[in-house]
Amino acid sequence: MIRTFSLHSAAALALAAALAAAPATAQEAPIVNDDGSITSAQDIVVLGSVGYRGRNDAAEPVLTYDSEFFQRFEPLTAGDALKRVPSVTFLSDVIESDGPRLRGLPPGYTQILINGERVPGSNADRSFFLDRIPAELIDRVEIVRSSSARRTGDAVAGTINIELRDAYELDGGYVRAGGLYYDDKELEPSLGLVYGGAVGPGRLLVGLNLQGRHNPKKKYSLRYKDSPENEPDYATTEFDNREDQRDTRDGKDYSANASYEIDGETTDFRVSGFYVRTDRTESERSFEYDDPTATGGPLPLGPLISDNANVNEIDQENYSIDAKLAHRWSLGKTTLRLGYARFDDKQRETEYQIEFDDKDDPAFEQVFTATDVTDKEYTAKLDHEVELGDDIQLVVGGLYQKKKRGMAILDADAEMEFPGLQTSYDPFADNPTDLMEPFGALKPTDGGVNRIKERRFDGFALVQGKTGGLTWEAGVRYETTKLDIRDFSDPDDVLTQDNDYEKWLPSASIKFDLTSHDRITASVARTNRRPDFNYISPATLKKEVGDNDLIGNPQLGPETAWGIDVGYERRIGARGIVGLNAFYRDVTGLIELINTEETGSEGAGTVVYQPQNVGDGKVWGVEFDISTDLGFVGLPDTGIFGNVSWLDSEIKDFAGERRFNGQSNYVYNIGFIQDLPKWGVAFGATHRKQGAAYDRVLGEEIRTSYGSDLEIFVEKRFGKKFTIRAVGSNLLNGAKREAFNKFDSPEDQADRKFDEYELESEKAGPVFQLMARYAF
């Protein structure tokens, strides 16, 4: 299908250019220009050159990407920006990038840091969705491929550290203005402001941002049922039903950030914080038909067999405040860091459905679900660095962290009868919400009300140094965890469990400069992944695994992994880099669901499952990236960048061998930027594709694939203070496609006796942006 962008659409987008801006926050060390001056706002608004991947001189294998690398493609969120770096995949809805999967592993295997500190999220796997962070906050992104004793060890796949701009990062201010035009003709604003300057003895930076969010998805599903004549080793072929769905996600993100910093002769002080609020409404309308192509009213007038309306109102707040004090004295450098972070997730979901299976007596059902999750963390860190001589340092330190997570999921439902509905109801003029009745009292869901307290005491010691072309680091971290878990689903029977565990996590890294252009890196580290919150609650969830029950296991320990990374880098010209890296992870103590041999709540033929640390797995891959201009062939204003990762893994579960769930077998991104300094113009494009991913859990198997993603931009600069940029994304209208194999029991799954086979396709259409920046 060929799509066109009309002049009418272009005019609407141009009129949308209002105001949108860039916040910022803190980073470990102030970045200034080579002459020691603070970066001017003009240098951010009017980019002086093509952005490249940076080269990090620390011992750890770290890839660094400054905001210049992303900015010209105008990513909306940190997740959108990360689509361009090596080995990051997503299993998100189309035109969304939420939970990053470094090396293709599930989000819980990747450690997400903001300014070097962990931030809580609402997800049960402890992951943090990066679509919560506006891209305008970002100063740089660091991909830390291996672990270090100086950071927590929750990084089996690696660490993504997002550094926000700090008070020493900017002198002056700028506004960012623009609009986004979507496939359903919706227009969303993007407005913001950032300013940095001297205040008293230090420097202050503040930023505000408003981002309109919209995603008009269309879904199409075909479902097939098993039949006796089908071969048991092949998916079902007997058509059962079709579902057409519109899923629109609409909302606003509001963010603010501030940083104040004083750098003294012996003492440095910094306090910084950010706040992000999301107001979002997710609206779904689904029609289910008993015909693969026909449409029409309910039976007996047509093939419609159900009409569903679902609305979810989402209100999320995420904020963090961090204070740092560093003092240099005769015995070295001592640093104290205190932080508080909180994530609040409030969702109110209503669902209304009319079932026309019985044409003489249609059924109407309504359900209301209230979900509240609060996750807050207090953190204190103290470390001390002392010189041992000959450019060798000893660093020792500790961490105390107190986490409190509360969750409450309550629902109410009702079933009612409306005689004659099959002839009086018009699905194309009416809505199931028209039939709604008052809900009864909300009641806790099974395992839906609990509180988890987690206390951590960590200590670490490492030695680092540099000798000639060799930079090295070796250390060990000792992590202890104490858990207190309570389930309040039944007020008359509160379930309480405790658990303690500890881990030694050694690590070592080297970086050796063979020449001024060539470098090799190598690292080894032990890391861990803590259990999902929904697995450690002691409650029993009825019919959680098909018709089988699931009981939590508060005594679960973390999964652990030994990892190796070996890489090579070569400098190309003044700023270009080409790199090749190979990695391997040996994971033990994987959490798998085990049959307890107890009879489930549905009686004979059902069982109770429980998660236990019984599995092992291996992950490996090769990563290649290049980022350079073409000055060596006479094109200094042409920049090219690209990366490709080949990813693989092996794990044994209840049905045999498979890859880690959701791991794509490859991901690549290629692009170019062409600058025309004489005319103050630049343009470029990027193309991204990730391979198919496969998930297998009890009762269900899913294969997920995505189409290619093409983005282009055109930029015009006016003097040294003003830039206008037009961007088009998802230009190939790439679809997300999923194939579901569903089974009644683990035995049927092992014997390949399908209960249902479903094919689902999801599309959202291209998105066009027009953005402007003005420095003052």
UniProtKB/TrEMBL annotation:
Residues covered by region (Disordered): 217-259
Keyword annotations from UniProtKB, A to Z: Cell outer membrane, Membrane, Receptor, Signal, TonB box
A matching Pfam family: Plug
Residue ranges of domain TonB-dependent receptor plug in the record: 57-159
Keyword hit for Membrane: yes
Main localization of the protein described in the UniProt heading: membrane
InterPro entries in UniProt: Beta-barrel_TonB, Beta-barrel_TonB_sf, Plug_dom, Plug_dom_sf
UniProt protein name: TonB-dependent receptor
Species of origin: Sphingopyxis witflariensis
The organism's taxonomic lineage, starting at the top: Bacteria, Pseudomonadati, Pseudomonadota, Alphaproteobacteria, Sphingomonadales
